[in-house]
Fold these 2 entries.
Entry 1:
Amino acid sequence: MRRLLLQFNLLLVLAISSWGAFAFEPIAYTVMGPQGAGVLRWLTSATSCPEVSWDSRAPVRMDMRAGPHDVAVRTGQQADQKSAQFELAVCEAAWPKGVQSARIEKTVTAAPKQKFQRILVIADTGCRMKASENAFQDCNDPQAWPFAKIVERAVQHKPDLVVHIGDLHYRESPCPEGRAGCQQSPWGYGSDAWVADFFNPAKALLQSTPWLFVRGNHESCARAGQGWFRYLDPSPFQSNRSCDLPRHDEVADFTPPFAMPLDAHTQFVVFDSSATAGKSLSPDSAMFKTYQQQMVDVTRLAADKANSIFLSHHPLLAVAPSKTRTALTPGGNRALLSVVNALDTQTPWFQNISYLMHGHIHAFEAVSFKSHHPASFVLGNAGSAMEGVLPATLPADFEVAPHAVVDHFTTQPDYGFALLDVSEQPNAPWTLTEFDVQGRAVHTCTLLNHKTTCTAH
Ligand SMILES: [Fe+2]
């Protein structure tokens, strides 16, 4: 018996060493893209791709999207740097129209629905390990980094779709010696940090629900962009859209906006703001010109449906957290605002957009306006460490941006997640419910005619 056990242990060690540096159970997940096309992906420690069976059809081999690869270190913002080791391969196959499910090995995945009515919205989920700010979250403590708890609560609501509005990867620097809360954590931009920060804690929702990903500044090419393109970007993987080489950043950091329909009347319009600056842009700058064309494309895409929800990681209309609850600081990204404010269709502001949803600010905010501005939601409280506090109320006629006069403001400064329930009936109200980490509803907001009001539970 003992000999048998020894042999089993030896086999286990051999198996684990053949997987590379860490053991990994494959994960099947679906990434939604332009026009609502879904692509099924398979993240695996194997070096070849498996077959997929659509319903009861004959199995077909999945395509290799990106195999194991060691990407040379780029000049980054952190003192400690290393190459990005992508030990896991990612395979993919587009969901054919009309099929109900896919089977890969023993894993069965349901096809994305035709219509999406219940949508989980989260952002800013990773565990911060950043030496340049001496900011280290206790990634090993589910109270201090509650993303896994949020996933556990959220999956019970059986959403049709998960929207992640950016900043998934935060483990950029090694955990300092003596800091127990993050000891043994992987760090850097390779697959081990991606698995610890995102794939492992999100596993239950990845396997049950299709995802729509929006890119955050943490996924820009100078940071975790290489993993973004391998794992999460919905378009085909290309060398000039991989962030592997800085000379392609001008393309790779500005992926084009796209629309993803929810039903006949409603859609998300996704915008890549990952590389945006912190200041207003000169109209002569390359970034201004690129974003200007993309914002024109956004308004054109938005014209296709009665309701368009604009998704960008960086907020346009929000309040910034500060050290005190009395500080009143606009929280919109100045570079993006300089572009949107210069669009030649200023009445209404940001034509054809019904609502705005963002991350980046680590809090929940719902802001509605007396002016012609679409109601704005900030949903960046799903795991990464909080930064500062927000005022509970705003003075009458406070402007979060020039001429954006606030009518209603609700905030929830603690961790949580939001469920958006969209009605298929045109002109019917929607609801957005904000939950805390324990799964208790904290606020319910009603969305109607580009405005929102929230009530506390
Ligand atoms: Fe961010």
Entry 2:
Amino acid sequence: MPTLAYSIRNSLYLNITNRCSNACSFCIKLNRYTGDENDLFLDTEPSFDEIMAAIAPFSDFEEVVFCGYGESLIRLEIVKQVAEAVKQKYCTRVRINTDGQANLVHGRNIIPELAGSVDCFSVSLNAPDAETYMRLCHSPFGAAGFRGVCDFIRLAAAEIPEVIASVVRVPSLDVDACKALALSLGASFRLRPYYQG
Ligand code: SF4
């Protein structure tokens, strides 16, 4: 039975889609390395009611995180509904882990639609330039994909209380250049471990 919600320390993670707007070379989903006891491979995408029912057994969490094996913001309307509902019902912080491609996917700036119900975006920057980004993330938007993630971080930093730009420490990545870019866009910076599939 696939897992829709699971807790790690004080955070409750939601797995609402396996679709993604990138195809990163280091993706644990694509490499089928999970290192995780949860089965995050979904047969079908859960409805609003199914997501809220999956949250219900948990009580001791301080944060809800849209994460899982996919890009949650592809399901923007569901994310908006669930984020607002958990804010109301649980008075908890809401974070979205994202590839930062949502404005390209939806053809508009969607960040204002989430301001007020989302406290934090953790955005996968993953590269200091378009060429490296394309090599690592295989964006279906081509060079616009890297511009898109940079624009997303900059726009989010203006509207969302906390924005973190993260990179996976793949071999030979210029981490210092990634950090400098993240800070110049108004985000804080986080380095994530690399798991070779
Ligand atoms: S954005 Fe995340 S889920 Fe999507 S392919 Fe990249 S690592 Fe995998």
